[in-house]
Amino acid sequence: MLEIPEGEWGKNTTAVKVENLEKDYGKVKALKGITFEVRKGEIFGLIGPNGAGKSTTLKILATLLRPSGGRAEVFGYDVVNDADKVRGIISYLPEEAGAYKNLTGLEYLQFMARLYAKDEAKAREMVELGVKIADLGERIRDKVSTYSKGMTRKLLLARALMVMPRLAILDEPASGLDIINAYTIRKTIKRFAGEKGVTFLISSHNMLEVEFLCDRVALINRGRIIETGTPKELKEKYSAENLEEVFMKAIGAGV
Ligand code: ATP
């Protein structure tokens, strides 16, 4: 991981700054000028329906896509001009991620740790942490090709967190998981935010789930942010029982 002098982080309370961000895929305007900020140490949820622009936003912040307009910074580093610096302080969990299926879970974590760690001792430390996060018991020694979807997702989350990123960008981390695995993943995220000070930017279309997980959320619809706030603030503003109702009222769906 990139070493940054403590003072520099200390002064900076903004983890992510997105300003008028635009992304066109040919004629499709996926992002139409979105603006939001994520504060250091918080769990921030970008939530909205299918096709709203969540994955596109996350990929731009993870330096995998170039924006068509506007700008975005991660801890003060521009995602286009300082892409290498950004890559050194984030980890990114894609929505549809595959782990190397011919490796065992343990071999996969060892392989990834060697890419990130400065030396063998640090790599071992990362793997030890990764094994704990994945929480797969003896199955960690089995090939990834034999894992269920939930087991693979837990392994990938372990890979993303064992490197202790400043910012973890997780695209639909609990998507398609049963309640036990989804609960475990949410608990891990909360623990890393609370105890280790990792900042999280997560996307989800499950509005009820993020309500319990996120400190603040931005609601995104058709490439535009339509609301930002704490779940409590938004529920009060719209006299709604939950974020799903907030969303429907905010887009004028007449509930
Ligand atoms: P989901 O919850 O379904 O994953 P999302 O909110 O993550 O949706 P995006 O994947 O960011 O949404 O897509 C936003 C818009 O951009 C959609 O209209 C989508 O069809 C379009 N889009 C995304 N990727 C591409 C691409 N590579 N080429 C063309 N259009 C794309």
Summarize the structure in words:
This protein is an alpha/beta fold and 255 residues long. The chain has two domains: 14-89 and 165-250, P-loop containing nucleotide triphosphate hydrolases (Rossmann fold), CATH 3.40.50; 99-164, no CATH class. Helix content is 40%, strand content 25%. It is built from ten helices and ten strands. The chain has helices spanning 6-11, 54-61, 83-89, 105-116, 120-134, 149-162, 179-196, 207-213, 231-237, 243-250; strands spanning 14-25, 28-39, 43-47, 69-74, 77-78, 90-93, 167-171, 199-204, 216-221, 224-229. The strands form two sheets. The chain has a six-stranded mixed beta sheet with strand order 6-7-8-3-9-10, sandwiched between helices. A four-stranded antiparallel beta sheet has the order 2-1-4-5, with helices on one face. A hairpin with a 2-residue loop joins strand 9 and strand 10 (224-229). Helix 4 runs parallel beside helix 6 (149-162) and helix 6 (149-162) runs parallel beside helix 7 (179-196). The termini are far apart. Mean pLDDT is 90; it is low at 1-11.
